[in-house]
């Protein structure tokens, strides 16, 4: 029996973070820390549900009209089998899905980890500071 999986995403009214990156404009340290806190809070939830996003970048972080950040585009997610991950200490090989400039080496080699999302977030906020 063939099973199909559908990913349904809520429409988020707002703009992605690429709209906030302007040549010569830098965020203050406090603004960067707040951005990190907001996205890390989302990643705690995502990772607690055994999912690696695998494509964190400004295009995939939306700022709603109320200012709250939302992580979008879960089309590249990797769900982790915790038993396998615990035994081997890493994930199994996957198809490489990434955006150059935001991708850590282990993900580029087809072995994403939860920390791969943290690296991508670091590369994202680096553009702001």
Automatic annotation (TrEMBL):
<keyword id="KW-0808">Transferase</keyword>
<dbReference type="Pfam" id="PF00069">
    <property type="entry name" value="Pkinase"/>
</dbReference>
<dbReference type="GO" id="GO:0005524">
    <property type="term" value="F:ATP binding"/>
</dbReference>
<keyword id="KW-0723">Serine/threonine-protein kinase</keyword>
<keyword id="KW-0547">Nucleotide-binding</keyword>
<dbReference type="InterPro" id="IPR011009">
    <property type="entry name" value="Kinase-like_dom_sf"/>
</dbReference>
<dbReference type="InterPro" id="IPR000719">
    <property type="entry name" value="Prot_kinase_dom"/>
</dbReference>
<dbReference type="GO" id="GO:0004674">
    <property type="term" value="F:protein serine/threonine kinase activity"/>
</dbReference>
<feature type="domain" description="Protein kinase">
    <location>
        <begin position="1"/>
        <end position="129"/>
    </location>
</feature>
<keyword id="KW-0418">Kinase</keyword>
<keyword id="KW-0067">ATP-binding</keyword>
<protein>
    <recommendedName>
        <fullName>non-specific serine/threonine protein kinase</fullName>
        <ecNumber>2.7.11.1</ecNumber>
    </recommendedName>
</protein>
């Amino acid at each position: 029996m063939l099973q199909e999986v559908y990913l349904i995403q809520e429409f988020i009214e707002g703009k992605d973070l690429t709209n906030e990156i302007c040549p010569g404009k830098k965020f203050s340290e406090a603004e960067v820390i707040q951005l990190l806190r907001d996205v890390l809070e989302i990643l705690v939830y995502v990772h607690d549900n055994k999912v690696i996003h695998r494509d964190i970048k400004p295009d995939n972080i939306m700022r709603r009209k109320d200012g709250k950040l939302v992580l979008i585009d879960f089309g590249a997610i990797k769900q982790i089998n915790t038993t396998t991950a615990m035994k081997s200490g890493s994930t199994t090989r996957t198809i490489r899905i990434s955006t150059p400039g935001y991708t850590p080496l282990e993900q580029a080699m087809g072995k994403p980890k939860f920390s791969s999302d943290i690296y991508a977030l670091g590369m994202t906020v680096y553009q702001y500071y």
